[in-house]
Write a structure and sequence with these properties.
- It contains 4 helices and 11 strands.
- The protein has 134 residues and is an alpha+beta fold.
Length: 134
């Protein structure tokens, strides 16, 4: 019986120390945006948690989501040099994978729903712009 209590106690400690990403990890992260030599472009970063605005060059706090972050920038007289530069794919945080062991499917679902289980590995976004053809 004492052996069983010890095992349960050790498992309980691992569960408490392991936590889940929604408790131990931040749900926000800073993203920096530059548009090459063009300054003063208004950029919108969007995901399922909201839209965030920044003038370039600049930084903005975005709410993490377990989906891609879309970026679009605009400035009169300029166009995107590479429209494909307008997305950043999310990546699961390591703590979220540990939650699969300690928190199970429910914990993993909570982390994905709140966005705490994901992050954007590319924090410096380069969205090049060029003069529009006249």
């Amino acid at each position: 019986m004492k052996y069983l209590i010890n095992i349960i106690s050790i498992l309980f400690i691992f569960i408490i120390l392991g936590g889940c990403a929604s408790i131990t990890e931040s749900k926000n992260q800073s993203m920096s945006v530059t548009t090459g030599e063009v300054t003063g472009a208004m950029c919108t970063l969007s995901n399922s948690k909201g839209s965030y605005y920044v003038n370039t060059p600049g930084s903005v706090m975005v709410r993490n989501a377990c989906d891609q972050l879309s970026i679009s920038c605009a400035k009169e007289g300029y166009v995107p040099a590479n429209p494909a530069a307008g997305t950043v794919q999310d990546k699961a945080k390591n703590m979220a994978w540990g939650n699969l062991v300690f928190g199970g499917i429910i914990g993993l679902a909570v982390d994905r729903t709140t966005g705490a289980g994901c992050q954007y590995p590319q924090q410096n976004i380069f969205y090049p712009m060029k003069k529009a053809a006249q």
